[in-house]
Amino acid sequence: MSYRSILEYIHSLAKIYFKASKKDKGKMLDHATQVTGLHRKSLMRLLKNQKEFLNGKKRCGARVKYSSDLLLPHIEYLWVEIGKLSVKRMKAAYIDWLPPYNENGVTNNIKFLLQKMSSTTLGRFLKKIRENQEQKSRGLCSTHPAQYMQNKVPINTLDSTVTREGYIQADTVAHCGTKLEGNFISSLTLTDIHSTWTANRALYTKKGPIVKKALNHMIDNLPFDILAINTDSGSEFLNIPVYNNFQKKKITFTRSRPYKKNDNCYVEQKNYTHTRELFGYQRFDDHDLVRLMNDIYENYWNPLLNFFIPTFKIKEKIRIGGRIKKKYGPPITPYQRLMDSNNISEKKKIELAEQKKKLNPFELKKELDRKLQHFFNVVIELEKLKNRGPL
After folding, report:
1. pTM of the predicted structure, to 2 decimals
2. N or C: where does the chain have the smaller number of CB atoms within 10 Å of the terminal CB?
3. Stretch 368-374: mean pLDDT, rounded?
């Protein structure tokens, strides 16, 4: 007798088994033992759970711990607020985002279930939420190699040997839209290789004195001392004002090879996550927008990413034949990496901890959205004035 036949027999037997007397139940079990060859205890267990039989199949797997109807709205809300991170980064971000989360009628029990949920289970929920990502347009490259300075600034590609904070990579992103003509705004990005702490600043044109002023402002506001900085071979960095500035500050200044983005990979990946995701690819060529962009970068966007968004960091590379296998450590926020460092003073750590206490990730996100809405409204108004022309 096949197992499917046994299940069908048990299903039919259960309809009369629970209505029978104790004596008749014993007789039914004796007969069922002879028919199926199963032990009485096995038959009793199958009969007791007969409600779980549907279409001749038993419901397999563990009982449902996480109700989709209960948790899916909260997971979707958090995923959008945190920035649509990958599953493991989102799970790591819960430690900072769940305590202040009070929206959508959330309860302590829901928070407990969300925290207890594994990243694999969370991934199954996110799979239901994700939509097909729209294909993004690509920005133009505004980097022009500075031939006359390349001999003064040495090439450095040995970023894998960095073991402490203070080794910075720098790059710029052009907000030029579909054309490079005329003056437009660019975003300058600094990323610490070891901690992944990142700072952004908008600047109008990329002339040497302007870049130098922006770099000094950013360096003075970093929570650690800069030991070395590596840039691309663009003329915005390889010029006399910037070069002399680093010499004066005794900061080691090196460059990557022209057209080799992997040499500056730590900051290159931030061009999308820290700039393009925020302001997109359209053209900003009005000087008044610089102040608004810097307010967003310094007061909302950078604190949100540095204090509350975990990042992966490569641990080791293993060559297997013709390919390289990369192993990553657990996702940690840049703030936590600085707090775990032995090279950051206790005074600075206390200052960082106090700064984080004053921040609420949900309030930061709401205010960021409000500022962005205002920024793009200003952009629209400026475009209307420009298209209207002189009166």
Report:
1. 0.76
2. C
3. 95
